[in-house]
Design a protein that fits this description.
heterodimer, A: 267 residues, mainly alpha, B: 365 residues, alpha+beta, Rossmann fold, OB fold (Dihydrolipoamide Acetyltransferase, E2P), five-stranded antiparallel beta sheet, 20 strands, 33% strand, binds adenosine-5'-triphosphate, binds magnesium ion
Chain lengths: 267, 365
């Protein structure tokens, strides 16, 4: 980054130091303390025990599933949105729910999925016994996907919207069927939007915690849940920080993986 | 001759919504291997015609034939037609090679053959060795040539060009006009070229279609259209002209600017009201006594090759004159012209009536 003058640099440095470097430093520091405040690396050894590794893997697995479903719902939606007449209005309508507090939305789903909620009312109407939808993998993934959809749609919508529509005509003109046009032109040109969408879905999905408790009834333990429990329940700040360190590392890895390329790819 | 017709439009109309007719009853036949130009002001439906030929748009009514085959329902990807888009529409995620090879890769041509043909196509458009350039590293003129290479590599029957030169500066534009015309002759393909620049149309085409508000006003060779414009619109659009109202007294006798002149047109009713067109370059400045019309010079501009004079006769009609000689501003001069310089246009004459009349009275002679 280049700044015109040194003084313009100061707020940036202050910001980074206070809100990025300092917290990460603190987490690193706490991760090397045991329950008695003694310096130790035992937290790191514990992290590599099977319990935590399994948890990391499950966390990954759920984040992957959530991202996958969010993507396959959001891409076509974003595509259809760009085709509508008042596309920005429609986009707005999809974005607005994301302004509502996450906790409120989660509670709403408890009501909807609950034994006496509308979903079970419909199930009963068809003559089936009401079933508990809450506290299942399905409900967890469903709610998480619902929450992340707007965040996935926005970058994909923008990428699709930015794309010159005559490129699609050019592809058709050169003999590409609609499917080939999508594969060879539309998707490669919107891949950056998809990557940003994956970033803003996958990373927060790894550290989801509240809805794991409220919707999945603590049946799903993600890295986020584990951190919360270490801090608030087990009061083991050292272990919580260690998990957080790994979460941060994973985030960096994903950002690198989905890094936006500046130049077009080679033929 | 009949099987040399490559594209035929039969009474094609196009509505985008129920009110506005974008194309009205457009019919034409295009012969194989010729350079056609669609000329008309912005919004007259030029791009719409190209899009119907390419298959991006369906006619609302009427039929389109390519190579004698009815193609209204044939999708764009199944047509032997390739387009050079107004903004080139090169794929930004592919380099020059990827762009030019696109059509062949879709057809699953062998990679070794693709390589060979891309190199050949690039040589054709004077860009040999540019395979590995990114599109962003190419100039406007080079991009246009990539777009042309991408179109010709598929060996289409027809190449459509939608104002491909409008984004270029004057020098490059003139250069590309020569290149395009030469390319068309080398390839022997049918080119359909869209422009709203009449000079470009006159310079490049075998045949021009002048369009206005979705109606073909006139079609013909550049010389035909320039010399015998069918109506005020064409006369005005195809170049600067002097258009005045007049009366056709009888065949070969016309009255305008308060005088009677001999002319070479006929086939109209006696005493019919008509419009008279005289091109600025057909008028010569002489002395007031020798001139057929007496005028006063109002302004004079030096245009490099000639002087452009704006003069007024005593009835207040403006006469533009292109003169090699200089004149005095404010001076009284005479304008001289040949009978052949007078072009008569009947009011509201359709193209068929126009052609029929021309044929009738030229046969008489
Ligand atoms: N998709 C569309 N929906 C509605 N109207 C359209 C559409 N495309 C074109 N039009 C209208 O059709 C008319 C003809 O458009 P067209 O693009 O063929 O003009 P053009 O002759 O190519 O003009 P230009 O020289 O400005 O490119 C215009 O009035 C335009 O507003
Ligand atoms: Mg156009």
């Amino acid at each position: 980054m280049k700044f015109k003058s040194k003084s313009a640099f100061v707020p940036y440095i202050l910001w980074i130091a206070l809100f990025v470097i300092a917290p990460i430093g603190l987490i690193l520091y706490y991760s090397m303390l045991d329950l008695n405040g003694e310096f130790t690396l035992v937290n790191y050894r514990n992290f590599f025990s099977s319990a935590y590794l399994t948890m990391t893997l499950t966390s990954f697995w759920y984040a992957l599933i959530i991202t996958f479903f969010t993507l396959i719902i959001s891409y076509p939606t974003a595509y259809l949105l760009t085709k509508t007449k008042h596309k920005h209005l429609w986009l707005m309508l999809i974005i607005i729910p994301s302004w509502i507090n996450l906790l409120l939305k989660t509670y709403a789903f408890i009501g909807i999925f609950g034994l006496y909620g509308p979903v079970n009312a419909i199930v009963e109407m068809f003559g089936f016994d009401p079933t508990q939808i809450l506290f299942t993998d399905f409900s967890f993934v469903f709610v998480a996907v619902y929450i992340f959809i707007p965040f996935m749609i926005i970058p994909i919508f923008n990428a699709l919207d930015k794309m010159n529509p005559s490129l699609i005509y050019a592809a058709r003109d050169l003999g590409a069927s609609p499917l080939t046009t999508f594969r060879r032109v539309i998707f490669p040109l919107t891949i950056e939007g998809v990557k940003s969408g994956i970033q803003v879905t996958f990373i927060p999905a790894l550290s989801l915690f509240m809805i794991t408790r409220l919707i999945a009834g603590n049946k799903v333990i993600t890295l986020g849940t584990a951190i919360e429990q270490q801090f608030l329940v087990a009061q083991n700040w050292g272990m919580g920080s260690t998990i957080a360190v790994f979460l941060i590392l994973i985030m960096f890895a994903i950002m690198r993986f989905t890094r936006t390329k500046k130049k077009g790819g080679r033929a | 001759m009949a099987n040399d017709i490559i594209i035929r439009f039969d009474n094609v109309t196009k509505f985008y919504d129920s009110q506005t007719k974008v194309l009205q009853d457009v019919s034409f036949e295009l012969e194989r291997g010729k350079f056609y130009t669609l000329l008309g002001p912005s919004g007259c439906g030029k791009t719409t015609i190209l899009r119907i030929i390419a298959g991006f748009e369906k006619p609302t009514t009427g039929n389109v034939y390519i190579n004698g085959k009815y193609v209204n329902d044939v999708p764009a990807n199944d047509r032997q037609v390739n387009t050079v888009f107004q903004d080139y529409a090169l794929f930004p995620h592919l380099n020059v090679f990827g762009n030019v090879a696109f059509g062949l890769r879709i057809k699953k041509v062998k990679e070794s053959e693709i390589k060979f043909r891309v190199a050949e196509a690039l040589k054709f458009v004077n860009l040999p060795g540019y395979e590995n350039r990114e599109i962003t590293e190419m100039s406007g003129g080079q991009r246009q040539r990539v777009a042309i290479a991408r179109a010709i590599i598929n060996d289409p029957e027809v190449i459509l060009l939608d104002e491909p030169l409008s984004a270029l500066d004057l020098k490059l534009r003139t250069e590309m006009q020569y290149e395009l015309r030469e390319l068309q002759q080398r390839l022997g393909k049918t080119f359909i070229f869209v422009t709203h620049d009449q000079e470009e149309a006159l310079a490049m085409s075998d045949e021009i279609f002048v369009l206005n508000e979705g109606i073909i006003q006139q079609s013909g060779t550049p010389v035909d259209i320039y010399d015998e414009p069918i109506n005020r619109f064409v006369a005005d659009f195809i170049g600067e002209s002097n258009i005045v109202e007049g009366v056709m007294l009888e065949d070969y006798k016309v009255k305008f600017a308060g005088k009677v002149f001999d002319c070479v047109d006929g086939g109209m009713k006696n005493n019919e009201k008509i419009d008279v067109v005289i091109r600025p370059e057909d008028l010569q400045i002489t002395s007031p006594e020798a001139g057929k019309i007496g005028v006063t010079v109002d302004t004079q501009l030096f245009r490099g090759v000639h002087y452009e004079l704006s003069t007024y006769d005593k009835d207040g009609n403006e006469w533009l004159v292109h003169s090699l000689k200089k004149a005095e501003v404010g001076a009284q001069v005479g304008l001289d012209f040949d009978p052949e310089a007078i072009h008569i246009m009947r009011l509201n004459e359709t193209e068929e009536e126009f052609d029929a009349r021309i044929e009738a009275y030229t046969n008489e002679v």
